[in-house]
Amino acid sequence: MPSHAHPSPDHRPSSTPLRAERAHLAASRSALRAMRKDAESLNIADVTASWVNAEVLQGEVDARIKALADLTHTALFFGRLDYLHAPGIDLAEGAAGENFYIGRRHVHDADGDPMVIDWRAPVSQPFYRASKKDPMGLKLRRRFGYSGGELTAYEDEHLTDPAEAWGHLPFERSREWGKSSRLLQSEIERPRVGPMRDIVATIQPEQDEIVRAGIGGSVCVQGAPGTGKTAVGLHRVAYLLYTHRERLARSGTLVIGPNRSFLHYIEQVLPALGELEVKQATVDDLVGQVDVRGTDEAAAATVKGDARMAEVLRRAVRSHITMPQEPCVVVRGSRRWRVPAYELEELVRELMNREIRYAAAREALPQRIAHAVLVRMEQAGEAPDDRVQDAVARNAAVKAVVKAVWPPVDPAKLVLRLLSDADFLAAQADGILTADEQKTILWAKPPRSVKSAKWSVADAVLIDETMDLVSRTQSLGHVVLDEAQDLSPMQYRAVGRRCSTGSATILGDIAQGTTPWATDTWEETLAHLGKPDSAVEELTQGFRVPREVIAFASRLLPAIAPDLTEATSIRESAGHFEVRGVAPDDLDTAVLAACDEALAQEGSIGLIAADARVPALRAALETAGVRCLAPGEETSAGSRLTLVPATLAKGLEYDYVVLDEPAAIVDGEPDERTGLRRLYVCLTRPVSGLTVVHAAGLPEQLGGGC
User: Fold this and answer.
1) Which of 101, 431, 492, 647 is a Cys-bridge partner for 528, taking CB atoms 3.0 to 4.6 Å apart?
2) Which residues belong to any copy of the UvrD-like helicase ATP-binding domain (predicted)?
3) What is the dihedral of CA 295, 297, 302, 304, to 10 degrees?
4) Which residues contact 445 (CB under 8 A, 6 or more apart)?
5) Distance of CA 215 to CAs 229, 480, 508, Å?
6) 3-state secondary structure 154-199
7) Where are the beta strands (DSSP E) in 213-355?
8) Using an 8 Å Cβ cutoff, are 629 and 641 in contact?
9) Where are the strands (E) in 186-308, listed by range?
10) CB 322 within 8 A of CB 405
11) Which of 184, 403, 429, 231 shows the shortest CA–CA distance to 311?
């Protein structure tokens, strides 16, 4: 294998490649510090026309200074590409080659010559995709190994040398050149302490294709556990911001995660890549127009989340429109101008047929009435202008007609009425919801007001839908939706509104759907999002979960997602895996013993249990003097054990996982399929090892005698 832990001499007789690379690293860090110092020394006092412009420019300068911070604990560059000739120039006899160092950001020297190339630049792409079958103009690709920010090793792959072998797995058999890279395996298997890391140094070819997909279309990624789908989505945001900086700076980008713990876990990835302005939110944050203080039974939440509710709400909003029964008479000076009721009705129906937002149509109606008056003025020989039309639109008689015919709608009050008034709900849901479904979502004791109502998460989504029916929701340039399989159709619509004129990256795993309304197909999801033509990509090759662990968890797939391809793992290390059956009275003791064994290893530890078991386990840990963190709290060298309720495990990862009582995790869900999917999520959280401790029998899908 072409790995050089003790490198051989290069073309400089008095040095070694490793010494030369370390010198380039030191020079690059020095150049980065100079770039930051230049940014800090900028004086914008005399280059702006106003204090507003000065504030904006200073904000951009401050962001530039922050982005140029030298993160000494991370590699400034992680690879080098040696081209046969300068990129973009045809190979000719005597043409000089060119070398590029690939890193997380661009660094140049005092003359402006690049010392490190941003990984998103076109010239960097061969680092991820070149092969001996298609060298993409390269003669050599070098990967660097680091420890604490210090360059310690390198590996070379000579892409034009057919005699060079890459270990037991020739490169020609696979596009994933990292499969036979010791440094790549070391980086993948490096213990995890703290938040999620970027994968910019380890992106594989199939991941890179998704990352660099154009902004013109949306992409849906079905990713098995450990395939890096979340990281791929975040790196795609970073790539799009690099490629379409001005466009996305105007329209905005957003990452949507399932919960706050998950967002905290991933929040350092984009800043590490130099992207500081991407906002993060949960779906609940997006629709947070009311205080959520209540919860729904699963049946009610399922109906409220059904896409049919969109039509119920549309009808409810439209029900406020009434046809005029009286003419509109506008008095101006000594003249009276009359618009008959039938003509007013025509104007109202025309606006209704255009399907524009309720508030926009309401604003347009007085102008339409005023125009009808102006037509009569012109027919009488007058010559009114736009100012006259605006004055007529503001006339008291016109305002009275608009108020009576097209009254304002308060979205929260409308939803309150819909869920409180059985007759109103029946009128709007006729032919859409059954009588039983209507009864399911009606409040048993209607609240008196919007403020006193104990709104649920599903209610907030209904209010958000109604708000969009009244006034259009602003669209962003790009939205990343992670753990998308768990959303209801109405939640998909809420997300889709935020990228109606932009693009989206949808990430998820149908096998990990753990809500009663979890999606069964991505086609259905994309239709609700308003992105039916999105490309669907499947990632099945895992880089995180050990082989034995993913094989054990995959026994559940026939029961929870029979159409999905079983995931495989390229991990060279088999990892630790053990299933321990114990007596019921010994369960807590056995779990603590497994945690002690895991803590003897390096890295983070996750103790995952059914939500109902968490209080007892926390008490047992406290009695034993073992400090545990809650999900979202950052691990450190002195505090590495996190007690994780099963419902919050999704998206998180730990070096070692101790899984408490699988049967309790399954039983904690409203139905078996959801319970088995929740268990699948929990089983696939480890990076290095998994110990399953159980007193009750294992689910039969796992082979109870295991």
Assistant:
1) 492
2) 202-546
3) -50
4) none
5) 18, 12, 20
6) EEEEECCCCCCCCCCCCHHHCCCHHHHCHHHHHHHCCCCCCCCCCC
7) 219-223, 253-257, 279-282, 328-332, 335-339
8) yes
9) 219-223, 253-257, 279-282
10) yes
11) 429
- Give the containing element (helix H, strand E) for 206: helix 205-211
DSSP secondary structure string, 423-476? HHHHHHHTTTS-HHHHHHHS-SS--SSTTT--B-HHHHHHHHHHHHHHSPPPPP
Q: Which residues are annotated as a binding site for ATP?
A: 223-230
- In this structure, the dihedral spanned by the alpha carbons of residues 562, 564, 568 and 574, taken in order and rounded to 10 degrees, is -40
DSSP 8-state class, residue 274: T
Q: In terms of DSSP H, where are the helices of 471-537?
A: 489-497, 522-529
Please, what's the b/e burial string for 592-602 (b: 16 or more CB within 10 A of its CB; e: otherwise)? bbbbebbeeee
- For residue 372, pLDDT beyond 50: yes
DSSP letter for 307, please: T
For 678, residues 6+ apart whose C-beta sits below 8 A from its C-beta are 514, 646, 647, 665, 666, 668, 669
> What is the number of residues in the chain?
706
pLDDT value for 633: 82
Coil vs helix vs strand at 292: strand
Return d(Cα 239, Cα 145) in angstroms, integer.
24
pLDDT (0 to 100) of residue 176: 40
Confirm if 657 and 685 have CB atoms less than 8 A apart: yes
Nearest 5°: phi and psi at 644?
-115, 115
Distance of alpha carbon 144 from alpha carbon 605, whole angstroms: 28
Count CB neighbours of 170 within 10 A: 12
Which of 696, 551, 688 lies closest to 610, judged by CA? 696
Kindly state the helix (H) or strand (E) to which residue 62 belongs, with its residue range.
Answer: helix 51-67
Longest dimension (CA), the chain: 104
Tokens of 530: 């308003």
Integer Cα distance of 186 and 340 in angstroms: 81
Residues 6+ away with beta carbon under 8 Å from 434:
none
**d(Cα 116, Cα 119) in Å, to the nearest integer?**
9
pLDDT band at 637 (very low <50, low <70, confident <90, very high): confident
Residue with tokens 């190994």: 145
Tokens in use for 451? Answer: 């403020």
Strands (DSSP E) found in 509-640: 535-539, 541-542, 568-569, 576-581, 605-609
Backbone φ/ψ region at 661: left (φ over 0), alpha (ψ -120 to 50), beta: left
Q: Is the pLDDT of residue 605 over 50?
A: yes
Mean pLDDT value across residues 416-429: 97
Q: For residues 543 and 421, give the distance between their C-alpha atoms in angstroms, rounded to a whole number.
A: 53
CA distance 399 to 78: 67
**Percent above pLDDT 90 for the chain:** 67
CA distance 66 to 506: 30
Which residues are part of a known binding site? 223-230
Return d(Cα 673, Cα 241) in angstroms, integer: 39
- Predicted TM-score of the model (pTM): 0.85
Phi and psi for 645 in degrees, rounded to 5?
Answer: -65, 140
- Separate counts of helices (H) and strands (E) for the chain: 28, 22
